[in-house]
Each structure stands twice: as structure tokens, then as C-alpha cells.
Automatic annotation (TrEMBL):
Protein name: Down syndrome cell adhesion molecule
GO cellular component, one term: plasma membrane
Domain Fibronectin type-III residues, every copy: 927-1022, 1027-1135
Name of a matching Pfam family: fn3
Signal peptide feature range: none
Protein topology in the membrane: Single-pass type I membrane protein
Keyword annotations from UniProtKB, A to Z: Cell adhesion, Disulfide bond, Immunoglobulin domain, Membrane, Repeat, Signal, Transmembrane, Transmembrane helix
GO molecular function, one term: cell-cell adhesion mediator activity
Record-level GO BP terms: axon guidance; dendrite self-avoidance; homophilic cell adhesion via plasma membrane adhesion molecules
Residue stretches making up the Ig-like domain: 38-127, 152-232, 246-338, 347-418, 440-533, 538-624, 629-724, 727-814, 824-922
Originating organism: Aphis glycines
Places the protein is found: Membrane
CDD domains: FN3, IgI_4_Dscam, IgI_5_Dscam, IgI_7_Dscam
Length: 1142
């Protein structure tokens, strides 16, 4: 019968115990003794990577009843053990890899597949494969390379990490000019975007972006080490002068793997002029279909497509076309959508109670969810269920397999697992099938009763189990007395329960006592005892002789009937027991004697029972003490025998009851089985036996056990027998080839006795005598099994090696092998920089070493292969060297766009390497741009400009030239020279109110740039610096004076003259009227504005006749008045004219 749900509530709970409630329910099932197969509570992950500097702890725990034992195994089934200072296996299921140095790396430990196994009495389960990979922590570089982009396009900066660390280092942020930080985020849009892979996109580049620096910051996922790029990257912004076809700067054919629910970014970024536009399509066979409107689709910036919350139906091929008026380019993306695997088996537990019914069958349904599902496999007790036949069948449908077992066999019981796998994920579930080997369980039992004599009585016990249990009954520890009144029997119900009974037709006083029913099968036994009390006087039933083994405990219970009983006593030789510390008498009539001895404890004992009325009963019992055999120690037979000899092992007992039976076993095998060919046993008398081997061979080595058995028990004595055998190869060493730098193992194993010692030697010459003991280096491990391991091979390890196996039985074995180290291609110099002038020829060399044949290919600054037949500027020349090859790439001539990283890739049969050469094409700088006048004064001005393209050579100086607008540029005009780090200066010593032309020239180590476009500037005015000249005056009438003058020199006007101030002062009452000390403030000032009517003359009227006047003249402009002229005097005199010049 098979039950998927038992009627008892407790059993039902135990059958369907779940992972989340196992802690409480498991304790209930254990209390009910319910068997529960192992189930994982904590499963180790599919992939485990860790750094050798940190180590790691991997947990694997399981639950069940009995509590499962957790162990670790390698993929080949080898048990994982603790290796001091390398690996620790804990009893709780934890597997710990300790931190280690490079010299302690072990390939079979640190780069291997492990499995966790949990087992108990029900069966075994295994975890999925755990891929362990210890990563050596090595120094790595982080670089950001300069990129070239035309104005208006989108620039792409990448964080380049050394190849050996690129899989473990992730970009956390970018920093602009050490001030502004950008973090991975594509939701905000805008000018700057950082994708999840760390790429920095700078949208709509303008000239100002060329003056900014960008640094990427990274973190090592295994060690937590943070590192920024060694040098900041820059963008060189070009202003295109002609149309350019779109140039794709991302992968043109990529494969993206993404999980369901994640976001995905596809890039189609191109650069060109006019700025490219983008169209996205979904590829369906040979047809391109435009992407339908979907709120999950968005374009953060031109050239990027974002798909939010990926679904399985997003799997497929996507095509992007970038286009402008010159041409178009195409980018293909293959999107592979995955979904984590999950597995479920129904039913979770099946219990069977019949083994032999051919109609019985069971099926397990395994459902696997997720994508993709590459394979579904069944395991039984931790082993693949490979041998499928008509009785064990598997049928498959979409995402589902059904395992059918029909008819059932006893061997089918155990733990079954279903695994769903693909290339990067594995999931499993397990179920248990319980058939047979189920211990008895009492489901009903009789209870204690107190009865009067006369009526009938039926005692019943019911048990289940598989195989079906058998019952035995006892009364007070002795078999139930035979009587025609008493019937003992049992039968099996339709539900496979066994009912046992004792029926008494007419109850008598002597039927009273403690009845015990015991159910037992091959697995276990279970008992129940209760008293049946029958009213009456005491009655002690007859007791058969009791046998006990010397040294054991004697337990005998007085079979007393009657009720009630007041006391039960034991006597021997008239003495009431106990009489020593080894004897104890209990109130229920039980006598115990510890460590029974024949001389003192064998004999007749009497049991007496009394009631309170004084009635009593007594009965004797004979106690016989049996003595087990004792074997005389047999000396070991080690290091005595060799193949071809004869041997005999004698086994003799020195004590023990007769008869004694002698048997022999070898290495724990069955009695007298497997003792080996030519082996016989002989019994010489009642006390001894011999094992005889006529002709010794290596197969006779082992542990031989003599077993002496009598009624009291058995005694064993094991004798080791060894056979001296010369060494023989079990793993013969062979010639080995290995790629340089990779680990290598040379295997050499021999068997024999004593165990051969394996020694490696290395040849240091052509003669066999020149083999010397191999000196083990930190790079080399020698294992006890004879394996020689090189952790990192080099050319120095190449040569002839000899393995010797000796054990002093014969000359031993030896064999010479050749270890060939195959050198992969390698570039001695990984990076370098070459500077070449524009339009000159460039010669770039790569020198690779390694085993031949070697091949070298080149990629240009656009990361595209260089095809010299397409671009005639390129030539490739190769020269073979003793240990490698030299390849030279010639470029004639070089252009500006050749600036960038050229990569030469070398390859041979054993690997490949890459060399990166940065070619910097240098030229004179471009002209400075955007000349601006910041601060104009009358004799100076401040100018600034934008830094131009420096021609890949640091700008040393800026030369600021200036001249008058009206003049021509001469060979060496006036100039100011400033350092190339500045883009602002002040020109001094200029003339006020003057127009100038200004231009700027940049200078680097290559030469001078072309002059910038001219900027025109006008200095501000100043007050005139000189007075008007040639002052004249005459009397025009007795009250009028006419004043005349000439303007100041033009170079002293310092601007445009607006007018003049004419001052006059009567001097008749003054001494020395022409003195300079007369304050000008006393003069009467008249203003003469320069216009069409007035210029350099003026008539002063309203004067006093016949009076002398002092006259001064002053010019003024928009900034103010200049100095006064020297005073002159003139007199008003009617009819007379004269001049007096001071």
C-alpha cells in the first residue's frame, strides 16, 4: 500500500513538512520517529569567485530525520578533505578556502567543481555543481584614452582596465575636472550619461568640452580595492570642414544577455557630419520591422535605445541604422533573455508498505520553469539515473518530465532529485520514496488490567512496518507457558497491519504477571509491557535455566502470579539477597547481578512471594554462567613474507566453553569467503585452527581474522599479513607538453610493499649519469602520490625528468620523460608611445617572442583591421628573429586622424597577446579662437582668447601682436609673449584714442600657428597733454580784443577736441602781470566750442578801454581740459594797435 497522506494528523504533518516551517515540524516528526529524507536548507551558489587575499566561506546545510550528514565532493566523486593552510571542511557543512599566496595556488583545489552531499538513513541528495575560481590579486591599470569628436556629435569615453582584471573591476563613477561626479544612471537623460557597463556618453559636444578632463573611478568586486584612472582623459573637439560619413564607434555586432525584469541599453553611437540620425528595427528573418510603440522603450540620447523591464518576448535581433546625407552604417544586436530556473517535484514523499506486489507503481512529475532549459536530469541517491529500462521510464513534454517506476523494486527506495540546467544556472528539487526497511511501529497495545479468575481474556498488539513485523510474547520475561487454555497468534490485515494476540479461555491465578509483546523485523524492534493482575494467593511459575555470559549483567524477574502481593524476595544458599554490592533486588521481583562470574554467581537461586495474609510461594531457578572464548594473541606477520613463500597462521583459545567453532575472514569479507586462491583452513583439535597459504602472492596481503564462537558469544583476533612486492607502475610517467605560464602535473605512481618511495630527478646534460635530485622550488609542489606539480611553468622548467620508484625489495623502477614548455606569443613591451610630425612617415614596431609559427595582425586607431591593400599609406614589414618575430607598420604620410592607439595582436598555437602603441601625430597648433577685448584703457587693454587645438604638443607660448589700424603688418610687429598656460594678457604703452589691430599666434615645439583672426580695438581718450600754440591777440576796439591761436600738436590731443577755454584778466593793478604764479582761477573764462562757425579765434567784448589784459587759452576734449597756454598781454587802446608777447 502506498500513502501520500496518512490518516494520523502527526504523520500528515511530517509527510508534508515544508522548508519554511521545518524547525518546528521537524521536532514534532522526530518525536513521532517519522523518517524524513534530507533536504537542503542553504544551497551553495552556482559560481563562487574570490580573491586569494581574502578567501571565502561557502555554507551548505540540510535538515531531515535523522539529522543528515553533510559532506563535500569534487565533480569526479573524490571526497573533499581539509588541506592545512589551504582548505578547511567543517562538520557543519561549511567549506572554507583560506587566503593564500601565489606559490600556494593549487589548480585542483582553487579552480574546480565541487558538490555538497547530504545523507541520512532515507538516502542521499547532492547540490548543483559549485564552480570555484580563486582569482590571484594582481596589480592592474585603469586608463582613459583621448577621443576625437566633431562638434555636435556624442563622445564616448571608456574606462580601460588591464585584461587580467577586467572581469572583476566595475566602474563606479566618473569625475569631471575633479569637481563634478557622474554616476551610472540612464533615467535622467541630459548631456552626460553613464551606462551600467561604465561607458560615459557626452551628448552634443561643443568647443568648451575640449577643455575638460574626465577621470573614471573603479572598484574591484572581489577585494573591494578602489582605483582611479592613472591620467584623466580628454576630448579633442574638431570643427568639421567637409561632410563625413557616419562612423560607428561601438561594436557593430554584439550579443547581450539580460535577465527578465532588468533594463537593457543598446548602443548604436556613430559620429559624422552632418550629425547622424538613428532608426531602430526588430529583425524577423530577412525582414526588418520598425519597433512598435511601447512605453517600455525610450531614447535617453540619440544613438541609445533603452528597454525597461525586459520580457521573454524581447528576445531576438535588433538592428540600428545611423544615417546622414553622406551615407549610413548598420549595427546588429542579438538580445538573449534569460529567466532564473526553478524546479518542483510532485509528490514530495511516497511511502510504500509492500515490496513484492507486481501491480504497484509510482510516478514523480518534475516541472522546470525558467529560460532557457538546456537539460533535465534525474538523480537517485546522489547518482545520475542513467540506466533506464522498461521498468524505469522517463517521458518528456514541454518543461516537464515524468519518472515512472513500475513495478516497484525494493532497490527503488531512496531520494530522487530532478535537475534543470543551462550554461550559467542550475536548480533542483527532491522527493523521497520509502520502501521496506521501515522499522516496526505499534499502533495499538493492551493496557494493565486487574481481574477475577474465571472469565476469558484477550490481549492484543497491532504494528506496522516493512518488512512486515513478527511478534513474540513473554510473561515476566519468560516464554508464555504452554497450555490448552492459552492461544498465541497473529495475522495481517488488508491495510498491512499485523495484529498479534494472546487469548486465554479461562483465566487462572497463575496466568497473572507482566505480559510483553515485541514487534520486530530486519530493521528494528519495539515492545510494550503491561501487568495483568488476577486475584488470588501468590503463585511463582516454574522457571527454565537462565544463561548469562561471564562479565555481563544478569537480569531475571521472578514470575509471580496472584494479587495483591506484599513482597518478593530472592535467596541463595539460605541467604536473603543482596549479599554484595553487585547484587540488587527490586520490589517488582527483579534480580540483577553486575559482572557475573562463574565461580561466585553460578548456582541455584530461589524466588519467594508473599501476601499480607501470610500465604507464600517459592520456586528455584538455575543460573548458568557461560564463558566466551579467549584467543591467544597471534604475532603479526609483517615484513616476513615475499611472493612464492608459504605461510601458516595459528589460532588457539586459552579459555571458553566447548564446543568452539573456528571461522576465518579476510579484510572483513564473509566467513571463509574471499581468503584467496591457494588458501585453506584446518582445525587441529577442539582448541585451535590454522589458516594455510601454499604459495604467497601480492593478493594474499591483508588482515586475517580468526573468529572463535561458542554459546556465550564470539572472540575475534586480527592478524596483519604483508607481502613484500617490488614496485610496479600504476600510473607510468609520460611525455608532457604544456603552455608556458599554465600549471602542469607530471604523474608517476607505483604500487608495491613496502609502499615505494617516488623521487623525481632532472637532467642537467645528455648522459644518464647527469640526472640529479630535483630541487623543489616555491613554484613546484610534490604530492605524496608521486605527482609533481608546476604552478606556473616557464622555459626554465623544460627538459628531461626521471621518475624513480624504490622500496628496497628490488632495484626499483625508473623512466625518463620529456617536459616540453610551449611558449605562447608574448610582447616584451606591452605599451609605448611614438611621436611623429604631421605629413612625416611613421614606423611602428612590435616585437613578439614565442614558439613558431607566429602571426601578427594590426588594428588602427579606429580599432578596425588595417588592410594595406585598401589604404596605400600603410605598409607592413615582418622580420623573423631567433626567438620570435618583428612586425613593422609603416604609415606614409601620417595625418591628424591617425592619432590614437594602434594594436598589434600576436598569436600562435598556444595563445595570443596584444601590444598597444599610442601614435601621436604632432603639428603646429591651430590658430587661437575667439579673441576678446576685456578691459580697454587709454594706454592699455586686456585681451583673452580660447585655447586652440595644440597639435598634440604642449603650447609653449602665445605671441600677441598689435599694430595701428591704418598701417600694414610688418615682419616683426609689436608683440607681447606670454606662457602657453595663460590665455589672457594686458598690452601696455598704447596711444590714447587710437584704433589697433590685434592678433594672437600659438607656438609649440613644432612651430608657430597661423595668426588668429584680427580683432580691432580703440583706446580710450585722455585730457590733452599740451596747450594750444602760437597765441595771438589784438585790440579790435576800445572794448574788444580779438584772440587767435593754433591747436595743440595732434599727438597731444589724446582724442577729439571739443573746444577751448579762453581766459582774460586785467593786469593794471598787478606787478609782473605775465607771471606764471597768477592763479588761473582768477581768470574770466569764456568757452569756445568747435563747430562750423568757430575754430581757433575768439572776440572778447565788454572790456575796459585803455586797459592791459592777460590772455590764456586751454583745449579740452571729452575727458576734460588740458594745460593752459603761457599768458600773453594785450591793451585796449582806441585807435592804437600793439602786441606784447610775454
Amino acid at each position: 500500500m502506498f500513502t501520500f497522506q496518512n490518516g494520523l494528523i502527526m504523520k500528515s504533518v511530517c509527510l508534508y513538512v515544508s522548508y519554511y516551517t521545518f524547525t518546528i515540524l521537524l521536532s514534532l516528526c522526530q518525536a513521532n520517529n517519522e523518517l524524513i529524507g534530507p533536504a537542503f536548507r542553504l544551497v551553495p551558489p552556482f559560481n563562487v569567485q574570490f580573491s586569494n587575499d581574502t578567501g571565502i566561506k561557502i555554507d551548505c546545510t540540510a535538515f531531515g530525520n535523522p539529522t543528515p550528514q553533510v559532506q563535500w565532493y569534487l565533480e569526479d566523486g573524490t571526497r573533499v578533505m581539509t588541506i592545512p593552510k589551504i582548505r578547511v571542511v567543517h562538520q557543519n557543512g561549511s567549506l572554507i578556502f583560506l587566503s593564500f599566496g601565489p606559490s600556494s595556488y593549487m589548480h585542483d583545489v582553487h579552480s574546480a567543481q565541487y558538490r555538497c552531499k547530504a545523507s541520512n538513513a532515507v538516502g542521499q541528495i547532492i547540490s548543483g555543481a559549485v564552480h570555484i575560481n580563486a582569482v590571484m590579486n594582481q596589480n592592474y591599470d585603469v586608463q582613459v584614452y583621448a577621443e576625437y569628436v566633431s562638434i555636435g556629435n556624442t563622445a564616448l569615453l571608456r574606462c580601460h582596465v588591464s585584461a587580467h582584471a577586467s572581469n572583476y573591476v566595475m566602474v563606479t563613477s566618473w569625475t569631471q575636472d575633479d569637481i563634478i561626479h557622474f554616476y551610472p544612471n540612464v533615467d535622467s537623460g541630459g548631456k552626460y550619461l553613464v551606462l551600467g557597463n561604465g561607458d560615459l556618453y557626452i551628448n552634443n559636444v561643443d568647443s568648451s568640452d575640449g577643455f575638460k578632463s574626465y577621470t573614471c573611478r573603479t572598484v574591484h568586486k572581489l577585494t573591494g580595492e578602489t582605483k582611479a584612472s592613472s591620467f584623466p582623459g580628454h576630448i579633442t573637439v574638431n570643427d568639421p570642414t567637409e561632410n563625413q560619413r557616419p562612423r560607428v564607434i561601438v561594436e557593430t555586432d554584439s550579443r547581450k544577455q539580460v535577465k527578465v525584469g532588468e533594463d537593457l541599453i543598446l548602443s548604436c553611437l556613430s559620429q559624422g557630419f552632418p550629425i547622424p540620425t538613428y532608426r531602430w528595427y526588430r529583425e524577423n528573418g530577412d525582414v526588418l520591422k520598425a519597433l512598435a510603440h511601447d512605453p517600455r522603450l525610450s531614447v535617453p540620447i540619440p544613438g541609445l535605445l533603452k528597454i525597461e523591464k525586459i520580457r521573454l518576448d524581447d528576445d531576438g535581433k535588433y538592428v540600428c541604422i545611423s544615417n546622414n546625407s553622406v551615407g549610413e552604417e548598420t549595427v546588429h544586436h542579438t538580445v538573449f533573455v534569460t529567466e532564473p530556473l526553478s524546479v518542483n517535484i510532485l509528490p514530495q514523499k511516497v511511502v510504500g508498505s509492500s515490496l513484492l506486489d507486481p501491480t504497484k507503481s509510482v510516478q514523480f512529475v518534475c516541472t522546470v520553469n525558467g529560460h532557457p532549459i538546456n537539460r533535465i536530469m534525474w538523480y537517485k541517491n546522489g547518482q545520475p539515473l542513467m540506466q533506464l529500462n522498461g521498468r524505469v521510464r522517463v517521458t518528456s513534454s514541454l518543461h516537464k518530465q515524468v519518472l515512472m517506476l513500475s513495478p516497484l523494486n525494493k532497490d527503488d527506495q531512496g531520494m530522487y532529485q530532478c535537475f534543470g540546467t543551462n550554461d550559467w544556472d542550475m536548480a533542483h528539487d527532491n522527493t523521497q520514496l520509502l520502501l521496506g526497511d521501515i522499522g516496526p511501529e505499534l499502533v495499538y497495545w493492551f493496557t494493565e488490567q486487574t481481574l477475577q479468575p474465571g472469565p476469558s481474556l484477550s490481549l492484543k498488539c497491532v504494528a506496522s512496518g516493512n518488512p512486515l513485523p513478527q511478534f513474540t510474547w513473554t510473561l515476566d520475561g519468560f516464554p508464555i507457558p504452554e497450555s490448552n487454555r492459552i492461544l498465541v497468534g497473529q495475522y495481517v490485515t488488508a491495510h498491512d497491519d499485523v495484529i498479534a494476540h494472546v487469548n486465554i479461555s479461562s483465566l487462572k491465578v497463575e496466568d497473572g504477571g507482566e505480559y510483553t509483546c515485541t514487534a520486530h523485523n530486519e530493521i528494528a524492534h519495539v515492545s510494550h509491557s503491561s501487568r495483568i493482575n488476577v486475584y488470588g494467593v501468590p503463585f511463582v511459575r516454574e522457571m527454565p535455566s537462565v544463561h548469562v555470559v561471564a562479565g555481563k549483567q544478569l537480569i531475571v524477574k521472578c514470575p509471580v502470579a496472584g494479587y495483591p502481593i506484599e513482597s518478593i524476595n530472592w535467596e541463595r544458599d539460605g541467604l536473603t539477597l543482596p549479599v554484595n554490592l553487585r547484587q540488587k533486588v527490586y520490589s517488582n521481583g527483579t534480580l540483577t547481578i553486575e559482572q557475573v562470574q562463574r565461580q561466585t554467581d553460578a548456582g541455584t537461586y530461589t524466588c519467594q512471594a508473599k501476601n499480607h495474609h501470610g500465604h507464600s510461594s517459592r520456586r528455584d531457578v538455575e543460573i548458568q554462567v557461560l564463558i566466551r572464548p579467549k584467543i591467544l594473541p597471534i604475532p603479526p606477520m609483517t615484513n616476513l613474507l615475499a611472493e612464492g613463500m608459504r605461510a601458516a597462521i595459528s589460532c588457539q583459545i586459552v579459555e571458553g566453553d566447548l564446543p568452539v567453532m573456528f571461522t576465518w575472514t579476510k579484510d572483513g569479507d564473509g566467513v571463509n569467503n574471499g581468503l584467496g586462491v591457494g588458501t585453506a583452513t584446518r582445525n587441529h583439535d577442539e582448541y585451535s585452527s590454522s589458516l594455510i597459504i601454499d604459495r604467497i602472492t601480492a593478493e594474499h596481503a591483508g588482515n586475517y581474522t580468526c573468529i572463535a564462537t561458542n554459546l556465550a558469544g564470539e572472540e575475534k583476533f586480527t592478524v596483519p599479513l604483508t607481502v613484500n612486492v617490488p614496485p610496479k607502475w600504476t600510473v607510468e610517467p609520460e611525455d608532457t607538453n604544456v603552455v608556458m605560464g599554465y600549471p602542469c602535473m607530471l604523474h608517476c605512481q607505483a604500487e608495491g610493499y613496502p609502499t615505494p618511495m617516488v623521487v623525481w630527478k632532472k637532467s642537467f646534460g645528455d648522459s644518464i649519469d647527469e640526472y640529479k635530485d630535483f630541487l623543489y622550488e616555491p613554484n613546484v609542489n610534490f604530492f605524496r602520490n608521486g605527482t609533481l606539480e608546476f604552478l606556473h611553468t616557464s622555459k626554465a622548467n623544460e627538459g628531461k625528468y626521471m621518475c624513480e620508484a624504490k622500496n628496497d625489495i628490488s632495484p626499483g623502477l625508473s623512466k625518463v620523460i620529456q617536459l616540453k614548455i610551449n611558449a605562447p606569443v608574448k610582447f616584451i613591451q606591452k605599451t609605448k608611445q611614438i611621436q611623429v610630425k604631421l605629413n612625416d612617415d611613421a614606423h611602428i614596431q612590435c616585437i613578439a617572442v614565442g614558439d613558431k609559427p607566429l602571426q601578427i595582425s594590426w588594428k588602427g586607431s579606429t580599432n578596425m583591421p588595417i588592410l594595406k591593400d585598401i589604404d596605400r599609406r600603410f605598409t607592413i614589414r615582418e622580420q623573423t628573429k631567433d626567438n620570435g618575430i618583428m612586425s613593422e607598420l609603416g604609415i606614409s604620410p601620417v595625418y591628424r586622424h591617425d592619432t590614437g592607439f594602434f594594436k598589434c595582436t600576436g598569436s600562435n598555437f598556444y595563445g595570443q597577446d596584444e601590444n598597444s602603441i599610442e601614435l601621436i601625430v604632432q603639428e603646429t597648433p591651430e590658430s587661437p579662437k575667439d579673441i576678446r577685448i576685456l578691459n580697454q584703457q587709454s594706454r592699455s587693454m586686456e585681451i583673452t582668447w580660447n585655447q586652440p587645438y595644440d597639435g598634440n604638443s604642449v603650447i609653449l607660448n602665445y605671441i600677441v601682436q598689435y599694430k595701428l589700424v591704418a598701417s600694414l603688418w610688418i615682419a616683426d610687429p609689436a608683440k607681447v609673449i606670454i606662457a602657453g598656460t595663460q590665455t589672457i594678457t594686458t598690452i601696455e604703452g598704447l596711444t590714447p584714442a587710437t584704433s589697433y589691430h590685434i592678433r594672437v599666434i600659438a607656438e609649440n615645439a613644432i612651430g608657430l600657428s597661423e595668426p588668429s583672426d584680427e580683432a580691432q580695438a580703440f583706446t580710450q581718450e585722455e585730457v590733452p597733454s599740451m596747450a594750444p600754440q602760437n597765441i595771438r591777440a589784438e585790440a579790435k576796439s576800445k572794448t574788444e580784443l580779438s584772440i587767435m591761436w593754433e591747436p595743440p600738436p595732434s599727438e597731444s590731443c589724446n582724442g577729439i577736441l571739443i573746444g577751448y577755454h579762453v581766459g582774460y584778466l586785467s593786469t593794471d593793478d598787478k606787478q609782473n602781470p605775465t607771471s606764471q604764479t597768477v592763479p588761473h582761477g582768477r581768470y574770466i573764462i569764456k568757452t569756445v566750442n568747435i563747430n562750423a562757425q568757430y575754430s581757433e579765434d575768439f572776440v572778447i567784448s565788454g572790456l575796459t578801454p585803455y586797459t592791459t589784459y592777460s590772455i590764456v587759452v586751454q583745449a579740452f576734449n571729452s575727458k576734460g581740459a588740458g594745460p593752459f597756454s603761457k599768458p600773453i598781454t594785450v591793451q585796449t587802446d582806441e585807435g592804437s594797435e600793439y602786441f606784447n608777447f610775454g
